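Listing S7. Sequence submitted for prediction.
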Amino acid sequence: MKLTPKQKIFVDEYLVDLNATRAYKAAYPSCKKEETINAAASRLLRNVKVKNYIDQRMKDREKRTEITQDMVLQRWWDIANADPNEIVHVRRVCCRHCFGKDHQYQWRDEEEYQQAVQMAIITAKEQGKEPIIPADAGGYDFDRLLRPHPRCPYCRGEGHAETHIEDTRHLSPEAKLLYAGVKQTATGVEIKFRDQDKALENVARHLGMFKDKVELTGEMGVKIIDDIGSDGDEGS
């Protein structure tokens, strides 16, 4: 049995973006009540003729594009399970005293130390004072990326917190799917992510984990539970 003209419009519109509510409005413009539209659109999707036609159209599209439902499902699943910490994370790094000798101030190398000495001399000269030369008793080879020393008397094992953004060229395939770009703001760089909750919801819906029900209140305040399923045509 063929679809009615309005059912055909509904399916054509639905296949654009899979939005049943919008598709129903396009097919039945005279229907204005949102609760009626939502219930009727959901019911129409369960109509055997409509459902079979949608399935066939989707299979035809799949053949044309060579994009299968499994491919789309896998992409959603990868986004839902990607680890955001691969892209940006907060880490605690050591302070200058963590690994210095006897926990004294540690320098990166002798060049950095000599630069500090010269700066102290120049500053003191400008102020007409005797220079206070920094000490290098803590030694060299400071590496800020080391974990804080748990017994450091200065930071007490806390170190410093810093936000680190990874080189996105070296992300895992899943993290690359999650990464949606960057935005330059007045305060710095904003990392954009794809919606992991929405991706997981898409997976769940695809696997039939949700059973949509529409609750409408009838006369005398009686609740009518519409379990979405009808073979008839929908009107306004």
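Caption to Listing S7: primary sequence and predicted structure tokens for the chain studied. The first strand starts at residue 88 and ends at 93. Residues 88-165 form one domain.
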